[in-house]
Write a structure and sequence with these properties.
11 helices; Metallo-beta-lactamase, Chain A; alpha/beta; 7-stranded mixed sheet; binds zinc ion
Length: 323
């Protein structure tokens, strides 16, 4: 299983039912959170995300719309009696800010946080490894230090050759051993896993690239990504604003998908100036047809992204802006 749920797709301010930046990754190895804008814990409840298996949080940069949900979320996890340690990978300074807040409110957490402070990277670096997943940080260019994250599956299981296995008396409880590449002896018969499995599916990968100025050289850090999330705060007609605020346009996000040879692109981090997101989607699709919009509360299954491509046009939301 490898799914991404978007918890917030709005840039800077919550708008039109769009929350602030945060995404959950649900993988066979556990649950991971990327960024934690204000309101993230409400979105988690609204979209019925279970955090029992939360292994790590990755923070791209220290702007408020990406971090202000952290004290609330972690306090709630503590009240829900979480005890296992939690890894947090975050830019320098976030740890001090977070503990200042705890001290200010005389709060404490029941669980330990294992902090890794990430400087502004200049190249792709491996930051987290678990049995079947690696996570890398890579450089982005924003007004303050900002890193993207690249999630790559590894050691994928062999696929069972069910047709062949049906011809044997081997009980199903031995199948996981074959899947993990182990031979089995059962009832004095030797089963070589090579004979009963097919090669693993190619590893899937997910790239999170937000917030950043467009720079074609960044694509070297996420070449051949299966599913690329790239910020597209603006339409290309607002390129000047994008450059001024160190953000990208939908067209630029599509170019990054094209140049990195990614398979699918998700646009997100939308400016509150756009009421109707279809314009951003069309701009990207003109360059990269496999583009889709990040929609709050939607689960994107990396194994079944094809169906999202024709599916992702959205009607403008009914809710009018609150001025
Ligand atoms: Zn930012």
């Amino acid at each position: 299983m490898f799914k991404v749920c978007v918890l917030g797709s709005s840039a800077a301010v919550p708008m039109f039912n769009r929350g602030l930046s945060s995404q959950v990754i649900i993988h066979d190895t556990g649950t991971y959170l990327i960024d934690c804008g204000e309101g993230t814990q409400f979105q988690i409840q609204k979209y019925k995300i279970k955090l029992k298996n939360l292994k790590a949080i990755f923070i791209s940069h220290n702007h408020g719309d990406h971090i202000l949900g952290l004290p609330g979320l972690l306090s709630t996890l503590s009240m829900f009696e979480r005890e296992e340690p939690l890894h947090i990978y975050a830019p320098e300074g976030l740890k001090v800010w977070f503990y200042d807040f705890l001290n200010l409110s005389k709060s404490f957490l029941r669980f330990d946080i294992e902090w890794t402070e990430l400087p502004q990277t200049s190249q792709k670096i491996l930051i987290y490894q678990i049995d079947k997943l690696s996570v890398f940080a890579f450089p982005l260019k924003h007004r303050i230090a900002c890193n993207g994250f690249y999630f790559l599956e590894k050691n994928k299981s062999f696929r069972l050759n069910i047709q062949k296995l049906k011809e044997t008396p081997l009980p199903k409880e031995y199948y996981p051993l074959l899947k993990s590449g182990e031979n089995v002896i059962y009832d004095n018969i030797f089963y070589d896993f090579h004979d009963y499995t097919l090669p693993p599916n190619p590893p899937l990968s997910y790239t999170y690239a937000s917030d950043t100025l467009y720079d074609e050289k960044f694509v070297e850090h996420f070449l051949d990504t299966h599913f690329l999330y790239h910020e597209s705060t603006f339409l290309d007609m607002d390129l000047e604003k994008a450059n001024l605020t160190f953000h990208s346009t939908a067209k630029q996000a599509a170019l990054q998908a094209l140049h990195s040879n990614s398979k699918y692109l998700m646009l997100g981090h939308f400016s509150a100036r756009y009421y109707d997101l279809n314009e951003l989607l069309m701009e990207a699709k003109a360059i990269f047809p496999n583009s889709m919009l990040a929609l709050d509360g939607k689960f994107y299954d990396l194994n079944h992204l094809d169906k999202e491509i024709n599916n992702s046009f959205v009607a403008a939301p009914d809710e009018k802006p609150i001025e």
